[in-house]
Specification:
Shape: globular
CATH architecture of the domain at 540-645: 2-Layer Sandwich
Largest sheet: 8 strands, mixed
Radius of gyration: 24 Å
Bound molecules: 5'-O-[(S)-ethoxy(hydroxy)phosphoryl]adenosine
Strand order of the largest sheet: 12-11-8-6-7-14-15-23
Distance between the termini: 26 Å
Strand content: 15-25%
Number of helices: 20
Helix content: 25-40%
Number of strands: 31
């Protein structure tokens, strides 16, 4: 170990899983893509941009002269929805199913590409009638229903900029986002179905727009039929959209025309509106969806479980899959309604072949028990993906075995709202993947792990993840605050984009994500990643999920405090805390042994499933709890802090 490592490298993983010969033989992308992109990076992206339908070709691939503000495919014009819809219909694939919709109560809809184009055309005509034009901002606050996809594409079709706000966010969160973007229209619904009940959405919109003078209309989809108090601003979707012509002549927009703003779920301060534009964004969304998911439009049934309120829903439900002519499943509700096998039932029903979900969901299924997926066939699956957080090696193994029956490549995909599309991931037909590792930057992407001084670390070393080259789907700034863009991402090292994540390279040079650098723990001068200690805990057969934080400690600076959720049906040792501490010591070393271990039933998570370690630090340091309003379930924190007061302490 070097004398002053930026981040310790503790966990050692030697398992590797190569794709089968059959999978590799049919894969969309071979290992040659790496060499091709390395030889001529811009030429490589030119070739990927030709996957789209352009109205006017671009003159220049990349203009980086205004760094860190990029322009890609300069001079090119296109309508993003033509690549996602019209061209598939024109190619004779209008009857192909674009969306198999499964509502939570069990209602379903099968929407073909021709039908989706007709709906988007009607909605685009309606938006125009409501006075929305190119460049105007439209806030979308909807449940996970087909109208959400239609609303986004209708905006894109007329060059309006959508800002989707997750339907679970509060009126205040919605208000601040409408206000920041100065949106002139809000598209919402009476409500949606979640956990077996109709949940209202409209009252939050009423509260939000009462203080937003820029909003001229609220367009309301009828989903649940629950009572809605109509205001002067409101128009029903079925009144204004359904009577529109089903054709719409699309205009073309500049490659750098803004496509959407998406606010990141920051915990404090003003919301950060991440801005994405058209040609480069769609190029990378489409290429990565083709390469990483090996998508075969004629035969695959693809299911990404993300809500459209998150970037994953933008790039891998709406833009990437539709650009590639995919058939996909969209599900409105929660995985345990009406029973804990709902997802597996949906996979069998639609013969889903590609599943893309988050580690938080996988660890929840581990907690519920292996017997639930074992009650379903799941034989249609051929590829599994993960995104959103580091996936612990044991969760990866569980996913591969219990869901993928040991014959599906698992791709752990690293990216961010800011990157717009996948950046680091195995290629499923090429990579011998290691459980828990995102492996390598995709072809055409530059990523490195660097020390505090910005020097690349050698294999076996840990540090900060940076992106070394501009990429087509990169954010073009923060809406209304370009200085904040420069300060947040380009000030630590001016030549690199700083992602805010810790990472390490193993002895083979493969990349492991180690969590947000703000969460790194410092124990007796050793900088230890939360991810590695959590992965060691999850590797114990009794543990389904774990979160660790560094709490102030007089002796060691910080001490590790662990919160663990046990697996249902597992053999639980009598002194579980002692056993788990010993287990961590064996797995990764005594330095990482938690000082305290607390068994809990739930962890505080954001609504997109990320663990909020900041709140656990408050508990561990006996502080008054910070802001809990972005939590999926604020009651969880009360239970945890009560448990902490009665918890076990070990030295
Ligand atoms: C984390 C989600 C480890 C990371 C697409 C990143 C991951 C943040 C992974 C972005 C992964 C996402 N392994 N960590 N495969 N994927 N993250 O903006 O900390 O919601 O910076 O975008 O999630 O979250 P965001």
């Amino acid at each position: 170990m070097s004398t002053d490592p930026t981040l310790e490298n503790l966990l050692d993983e030697h398992r590797r899983f190569s794709p089968s010969g059959d999978f590799s033989a049919q894969a969309n992308v071979t290992g040659a893509a790496y060499a091709q992109a390395a030889t001529d990076r811009l030429g490589f992206w030119d070739e990927q941009a030709r996957r789209l339908q352009w109205e006017t070709p671009w003159r220049q691939t990349l203009d980086w002269s205004q760094a860190p503000f990029a322009s890609w495919f300069v001079g090119g014009t296109l309508n993003v929805t033509v690549s996602c819809l019209d061209r598939h219909v024109a190619a004779g694939n209008g009857e192909r199913i674009a969306i198999h919709f499964e509502g939570e109560p069990g209602d379903t809809e099968q929407i073909s590409y021709a039908e989706l184009l007709a709906r988007v055309s009607q909605a685009a005509n309606a938006l125009t009638e409501l006075g929305i034009g190119a460049g105007d901002r439209v806030a979308i606050y909807l449940p996970m229903i087909p109208s959400a996809v239609v609303a986004m594409l209708a905006c894109a079709r007329i060059g309006a900029v959508h800002s989707v706000v997750f339907g679970g966010f509060s009126a205040e969160a919605l208000r601040s986002r409408i206000d920041d973007a100065q949106a002139s229209l809000v598209i919402t619904a009476d409500g949606g179905y979640r956990r077996g009940a109709a949940t209202a959405l409209k009252p939050a919109v009423d509260e939000a727009v009462a203080n937003c003078p820029t909003v001229k209309h609220v367009l309301v989809v009828k989903r649940t039929g629950q009572d809605v108090a109509l205001t002067d601003l409101d128009v029903w979707w079925h009144d204004v959209v359904d009577r529109q012509p089903i054709t719409h002549t699309p205009a073309s927009f500049d490659s750098e025309h803004p496509l959407f703003i998406l606010y990141t779920s920051g915990t404090t301060g003003k919301p950060k509106g991440i801005l994405h534009t058209s040609g480069g964004y769609l190029t990378q969304a489409a290429y990565t969806h083709h390469a990483v998911f090996d998508l075969k439009p004629e035969t695959d049934v693809y299911w990404c479980t993300a809500d459209i309120g998150w970037v994953t829903g933008h790039s891998y439900v709406v833009y990437g899959p539709l650009a590639n002519g995919s058939t996909q499943v969209i599900y409105e509700g929660t995985p345990d309604t009406p029973h804990q096998g709902r997802w597996w039932e949906i996979i069998d029903k639609y013969k889903v072949s590609i599943l893309y979900t988050a580690p938080t969901a996988i660890r929840t299924f581990m907690k519920w028990g292996d017997e639930i997926p074992a009650g379903f066939s799941l034989r249609s699956l051929r590829l599994l993906g993960s995104v959103g957080e580091p996936i612990n090696p044991e969760a990866w193994m569980w996913y591969r075995h219990n869901i993928g029956h040991d014959n599906c490549p698992v791709v752990d995909t690293w990216w961010q709202t800011e990157t717009g599309a996948i950046m680091i991931s195995p290629l499923p037909g090429v990579t011998a993947a290691k459980p828990g590792s995102a492996m390598r930057a995709l072809p055409g992407i530059g990523a490195e792990v660097v020390s505090d001084h910005g020097e690349p670390v050698s294999n076996g070393g840990g540090g900060y993840l940076v992106l070394t080259e501009p990429w087509p789907s990169m954010l073009r700034g923060i809406w209304g605050d370009n200085q904040r863009y420069v300060d947040t991402y380009w000030s630590r090292w001016s030549q690199f984009y700083f992602a805010g994540d810790g990472a390490k390279l193993d002895d083979d040079g493969d990349l492991w994500l180690l969590g947000r650098v703000d969460d790194v723990m410092n124990v007796s001068g050793h900088r230890i990643s939360t991810t590695e200690v959590e992965s060691a805990l999850v590797a114990h057969p009794a543990v389904a999920e774990a979160a660790v934080v560094g709490a102030n400690d007089e002796t060691t600076g910080q001490a590790i405090v662990a919160f663990v959720i046990l697996r249902s049906g597992a053999d639980i040792p009598t002194d579980v805390a002692t056993e788990l501490r010993a287990h961590v010591a064996t797995e990764i070393g005594a330095i990482a042994k938690p000082k305290k271990i607390l068994v809990v039933n739930e962890l505080p998570k954001t609504r997109s499933g990320k663990i909020m370690r900041r709140l656990l630090r408050d508990v561990a340091e006996n502080r008054h709890l910070g802001d809990v309003t972005t939590l999926a379930d604020p009651a969880v924190m009360m239970l945890i802090s009560d448990g902490m007061a009665a918890g076990t302490e070990q030295d």
